Amino acid sequence: YVPPQVRRAQETLDDKKREELGRLKKMVNGLINRLSEPNLSSISGQMEELYMANSRKDMNDTLTDILMNACVTAVAMPTRLVMEHVLLVSILHHNVGIEVGAHFLEAVVKKFDELCKNDAEGKECENLLALIAHLYNFHVVHCLLIFDILKKLVSTFTEKEIELILFLLKNVGFSLRKDDALALKELITEAQRKASTAEKKFQDQTRVRFMLETMLALRNNDMRKIPGYDPEPVERLRKLQRTLVRSSGSGKDTQLRVSLESLLSADQVGRWWIVGSSWSGAPMISDTNSKTQQKLHLGKVSSKIMELARKQRMNTDIRRSIFCVLMTSEDFMDAFEKLIK
Length: 341
Hints:
CATH architecture of the largest domain: Alpha Horseshoe
Domain MIF4G: 25-222
Distance between the termini: 54 Å
Helix content: over 70%
Number of domains: 2
CATH class of the largest domain: Mainly Alpha
Protein name: Nucleolar MIF4G domain-containing protein 1
CATH topology of the largest domain: Serine Threonine Protein Phosphatase 5, Tetratricopeptide repeat
Family: Belongs to the CWC22 family.
Largest sheet: none
GO cellular component, one term: nucleolus
Number of helices: 17
Order of helices and strands: HHHHHHHHHHHHHHHHH
Shape: globular
Keywords: Nucleus
């Protein structure tokens, strides 16, 4: 039971909160609408001030909603527009804190997974992939996630997936080659295997052939073979990013090294990639196995050692186990082996 006066106070608080969020949304929306390469510096500065003035959660939610509405549409978005939006996220990720990029990335990846499962008709999947690709281009996320997505697409291997693989490789292929050439080579081998087994399945063979040619051009580091490939816009925005990011750690150490599986199961197993995001849900590792093992080890120890352990106040199973191992080992190697067990 909630007394009327408390209920009234809560309602006014909710209204106040709603009003504040509405005002915040208008301000962020205004900034995002004006976003372009020349004024990126001033807009990122204003966004940082908003982050300082409001709660991080409210800002992250608002920014993610507005960017998703702006960039995820049924028609293909202009590449430059997507790049500028992601560059803003990247600057905030480096200057404000990694939870900004992490929150946005998680929302994008979950939406992408959902749309892939539902076979969306429009260009939403391409737009979401473009966001993920540029998050990687601007050092928000590690290549591990991109490889996970590519592996997933190669394993499904329908015509829609081939389009998405081509789209992603065109955007980030040469960066992937630089970061992890071996993983790219394995991926290409897997794609070739899939293509040879699925040849009868497709009416239109040219897309598959074109994808394999693109992959070979990547493997041989031959940029001319990829039509419409132009690294210049990304390089120009990366230069701009270097001037706008304050901390010296603008490169690899702030990249989120998180896998696709971790992002999709974040609600069940917690978000280990965000500092301070400790989680008290179901434990990741069940404790039953270790307890039985401890009891097994204790069974082999003489009563004399157990008495010594009691005198030394070894009052838990794990302490007694360690004490017994140390007292009964022949040498340091033996002790090490037993402790590891």
